[in-house]
């Protein structure tokens, strides 16, 4: 690819810049399997459920989507619900508590290939933003030592404040491009989640790059990725 064709790079965070998708997966599994076990549901929550119903979505949307797959309906509740309350918000809050506990105890290191590409783009003067459904995006970036590269962060927190729908809607990516002052046709979206590449395609961005961290290259392509890589360092080798 020729980076002269683009002025901005819009990165998802979890699974693209940092391996925190693995931490999210563990936190979701812990929360959902405890919940299912308490209700006497024999079929456990699996990694396949994560990729199908949860990955890339705002937290409460992920709860709602998975519960619907098991024909379980809970009250919506409120974001102020205590963690573990039997509401959509209560389960989402419990998952967040589990995530923060794991992050605090284990920390996070960014993917080396992603660091290489980010530094290369910074040296070229390419504008960069983080677009993440996670409300913890700034804390994760700070823990990974990467926050200074991203003057614009559109996380689940900012999306909620602005009333923007989450992925697969393109609105958060469009907002990041707007804040960077770059037309969408001149921006590249980097995503590892099906909902994220679908958002990039729906937003009609200049290029959508899928990062295959386990969901599968075919599925990423089907949902809208123009190019699929296993690691962002491959884009350096391609002449970025």
UniProtKB/TrEMBL annotation:
Its EC number is 5.4.2.6. Gene3D superfamilies: HAD superfamily/HAD-like (3.40.50.1000), Putative phosphatase, domain 2 (1.10.150.240). One of its GO terms (molecular function) is hydrolase activity. The keyword Mitochondrion does not apply. Transmembrane segments: none annotated. Keywords: Carbohydrate metabolism, Hydrolase, Isomerase, Magnesium, Metal-binding, Phosphoprotein. It catalyses: beta-D-glucose 1-phosphate = beta-D-glucose 6-phosphate. It is an enzyme of class 5 (isomerase). Its cofactor is Mg(2+). PANTHER family: 6-PHOSPHOGLUCONATE PHOSPHATASE (PTHR46193), HEXITOL PHOSPHATASE B (PTHR46193:SF18). NCBIfam families: HAD-SF-IA-v3 (TIGR01509), PGMB-YQAB-SF (TIGR02009). Belongs to the HAD-like hydrolase superfamily. CbbY/CbbZ/Gph/YieH family. This is Beta-phosphoglucomutase. The lineage of its organism: Bacteria, Bacillati, Actinomycetota, Actinomycetes, Propionibacteriales.
